[in-house]
Amino acid sequence: MNIYPDIRTVLFFASLIGLVVSLTFVYVLKTRKTYEGFQFWMIASLSSFFGVLLVSLRGLIPDIFSIVLGGTLIASFMVYIAYGINLFIGRAAKKGLYLIPVGLTAVAQAYFTYIYPSVNARTIVISIVIAVLDLWCAALVYRGVSRKMGGPCLFLIAAFMISAGLNVIRFIWVALVDPYLSDFMSSAGLHGILLIIITGIHLAVAVGLILLNFQRVEQDLKDSLDEIKVLRGIIPICASCKKVRDDKGYWNQIESYIRDRSEAEFTHGICPDCVEKLYPGYTEGMQNKKAR
Predict the structure, then answer these.
(1) CATH match for 7-226 among 2.30.30, 1.20.120, 1.20.1070, 3.40.50
(2) What is the Cα–Cα distance from 203 to 197, expressed in whole angstroms?
(3) Distance between CA 103 and CA 57 in Å, rounded?
(4) pTM score > 0.85 for this model?
(5) For the segment 161-188, what is each residue's pLDDT rounded down to a tens digit?
(6) Is 79 in contact with 101 (CB distance < 8 Å)?
(7) Is pLDDT at 288 greater than 60 in this prediction?
């Protein structure tokens, strides 16, 4: 009796988990405040769902879909995440650079399917691409998010690092321990266990990205509250012209000072005392009309 999980079953349930994650990203995008880059994390989850689903159908549908397209979509999962993180932290992202791993994966999957068939080679390519992108994402989060949010997101960094480590283990296992795979779906059950763990870590990555978005919402709210508190403190104001000195030492009109630190807008009018002072004739005329 085989105590290990069946590869096709593992992949099918992994695709269902990917579908739930995708729907969660769509819900958050439609109902909550999100930032630039979040939409690419949603696309990444959809790419993972379809990619794993296609791979689970290997042998039931043409190889061009189950192997080449499925493997490319799985690699695209990490590409979209990395690109989204770049946008999220406000860093200029070169689209062409992110197309390279997608193109290399597609070419390698096609080559090792039709020209030089090799299950091991295809698995090694996917594992290396994902491991490298995991490390890249961890670096982006460590450097960019730390500056943006005032501190590192350790949960997300740990998830990326663990994912990279697991894919390196998978690469070593396929290259050295089990180098003669003839059919991925009938491979040793240890591959299934490793895929289950990787699926769990990728689920943690998705949760971490959603939490990262909410963390930034909280940070923006805190910054807004800090700005509002400025208006509650002691405000240096000129006794003559009524200009206000800001925290950089510049003197501004009081309207500009308040408008820059709140959502208040000003509309100008003139009070009765100033009308009487500036336009005494107008005031006297209005009083005579009322007397009549």
Answers:
(1) 1.20.1070
(2) 10
(3) 22
(4) no
(5) 999 999 999 899 888 887 777 777 776 6
(6) yes
(7) no
